[in-house]
Amino acid sequence: MDLTDVSLALLSAVLHAGWNAAVKVSRNPAQVMTAQMVLGAVLVVPALFFSGLPNLASFGWIAASTVMNVLTVSALLRAYELGGFGLVYPVVRSLAVLMVVPLAAVVTGERLGTAGLLGVLVISLALVVLAWDAARGKGITRAAIGWTTAAGVGTAAYIMCDAQGVRLSGSPWAYGFVVSITNAAAMAWRQRRSGPPWAQVTAHWALALPIAVAAMGSYLIILWVWSHAPIAPAAALRDTSAVFAILIAVFWLKEPFTRTRIAAVLLAASAIPLLRFG
Fold it and tell me: Residue 4 class from Cβ within 10 Å (0-12 exposed, 13-18 middle, 19+ buried)?
């Protein structure tokens, strides 16, 4: 990966961490999530007039990505109820990163060098350290483990769908715009018992709008990277979002910066040059 791709993948991670933290601290995370996805879809509709639609060959991947996204969100929400955000999120991202490496090798023929593979493993270790820190002193049920694993598998699946789809789309922007619209429609359907999507947008628009801008920016940036860069290292760099989320929690939410968290941050930082030159 060249320096531009590394920098953009890390920027995507920062934006991803920021908007997830904002959703996490809101009073009604599920409704805020729905509102930001609907607003994001509304924002990109005019852009489709300039980008046009993606190539027809990518539409199967768009459908698959949308289905996997809804299933993953469902598994995540259940896992959060049983295991908590601090434990579930880093484990899910770690599982996804580890599964993307063999999936990319099988599906696209991409194989990492020794340094690249080591970088992926180091980032996964950093995420596991964060999960261990969150899990200390807590009992973890089999159900929580099951839903977390399901969310990790789903995350790896939609990463591969998006990476494949965007390469066939002819335009990462057109692909991202269409997926944002289909994901919003799927999420609105999933949350239909909470009321019409516009009612949820009206109730939460002031918070959801900046979140939607950050989420859209994060997604479009990583799609552009995936359109030409190796999938696994780019996904690993983006999943340092869990580490950036810790830094946001420390400096924004005034949570303690423990030795374990410091170790996770240093581990993630040490992986960046490995992925850059691997």
Answer: exposed
Nearest to 229 by CA among 147, 122, 112: 112
> Looking at this protein, which amino acid is placed at residue 108?
T
Q: Distance (Å, rounded) from C-alpha 83 to C-alpha 77?
A: 10
Q: Is the dihedral of CA 34, 145, 88, 272 positive or negative?
A: negative
Residues in Cβ contact with 78 at an 8 Å cutoff, skipping those fewer than 6 apart: 147
Q: Quick one: DSSP state of residue 56?
A: G
The CA distance from 134 to 116, in Å, is: 28
The residues, any chain, with a CB within 8 Å of residue 166's CB and separated by 6 or more, are: 58, 172, 175, 176, 223, 226, 227
- In our burial notation (b when 16+ CB lie closer than 10 A, e otherwise), range 146-165 reads ebbebbbbbbbbbbbbbbbb
Q: Among 23, 102, 107, 33, which residue's Cα sits nearest to residue 70?
A: 33
Q: What angle do CA 15, 20, 23 make, to 5 degrees?
A: 130
Distance of alpha carbon 15 from alpha carbon 40, whole angstroms: 14
Query: Are the C-beta atoms of residues 52 and 171 closer than 8 Å to each other?
Result: yes
Q: Which amino acid is at 52?
A: G
C-alpha 9 chain-centroid distance: 11
Q: Are 201 and 33 in contact (CB under 8 A)?
A: no
**Burial annotation 231-266 (CB, 10 A radius, 16+ → b, else e):** bbbbbbbbbbbbbbbbebbbeeeeeeeeeebeebbe
- Do residues 108 and 231 touch, judged by C-beta distance below 8 A? yes
pTM passes above 0.90 = no
Predicted confidence (pLDDT) per residue in 116-171, tens digit: 888 888 888 888 888 888 777 676 788 888 998 999 999 999 999 999 999 999 99
pLDDT digits (tens, 9 = 90+) for 11-34: 999 998 888 778 877 888 888 989
| CA–CA gap between residue 262 and residue 257 (Å, rounded) | 7
* Distant-in-sequence, close-in-space partners of 109: CB < 8 Å, separation ≥ 6: none
